[in-house]
Known about the structure:
The chain has helices at 48-60, 138-162, 176-186, 191-199, 203-227, 232-235, and strands at residues 2-3, 7-8, 24-31, 40-45, 64-71, 80-95, 101-117, 125-130. With 247 residues, the protein is α+β, with helices and mostly antiparallel strands. Strands 3-5-6-7-8 form a five-stranded mixed barrel. It is globular and about 50 Å long.
Amino acid sequence: xxxxxxxxxxxxxxxxxxxxxxxxxxxxxxxxxxxxxxxxxxxxxxxxxxxxxxxxxxxxxxxxxxxxxxxxxxxxxxxxxxxxxxxxxxxxxxxxxxxxxxxxxxxxxxxxxxxxxxxxxxxxxxxxxxxxxxxxxxxxxxxxxxxxxxxxxxxxxxxxxxxxxxxxxxxxxxxxxxxxxxxxxxxxxxxxxxxxxxxxxxxxxxxxxxxxxxxxxxxxxxxxxxxxxxxxxxxxxxxxxxxxxxx
Length: 247
C-alpha cells in the first residue's frame, strides 16, 4: 500500500518486466532505505565486512546492490533483502579514523533478485537481473508528466517558502521513467511505499500516484502556510506611527 503521510490504496501496475541483460551475481548492501536510479545516497560505512565490500567495489569498478531490508538489521547478522533493489556506483569516498568511510553512491539501474545467500562472502550476495518500465509512448505520457511537473514545482516552492528560502533553478529529466524516479525520491513516502514505486514497471501508474500525492500535499502546504506566524516587521506599515522603527 502506498503511504505518504497516511495510507494510499495500491494501484495496479506491471512488475518486473523481463530484461535483456543476463543474470549475474553481485554484492548486496541491505539498508532501511530505498535507492532510486540516478539519485544520490550518502552512506557511513563502519562494519568491517562493508568496508571490504566498498574496497572491492573501488578496486574492480563494479557496482553493488542497495536493497531494502525485509527482515533483520543493517548491522549484525546478515539481513534478508526485499525482492528488488538498485545498483549503486561509488561517486566519492572520504576516509575517516579507525577505517570508517563516508561514501557517496549514485543509483544506476534496477534489478530483481533471483536468489541470495550469505554463505559465499562476508556480506549478502545475490543473482540478479535488471528490469525497466514497460515501453510507453512518451507523447501519450506528456500531459500527465507535465501536470506532475507543475505540481512538483509548486510543492518544492511551497516547502522552501515555508523555510524562507528562495527556490533554486533545477532541471528534471525529460525521459518519463527517469522523471518519475526523481519525483518519487523527493516526495515524503515511507520506505514501503518507495519500494512499491521502485518495483512498478508502468510509468503511467507511478506518475499517477505521484500526481495524487502532490495534490494532497498542496493542500497540506496551504494549511501550513496559513499557520506560519507573521513577524512584526512583516506587519510594519510606514504610514502607521504606532509601529516602532527598526532603528
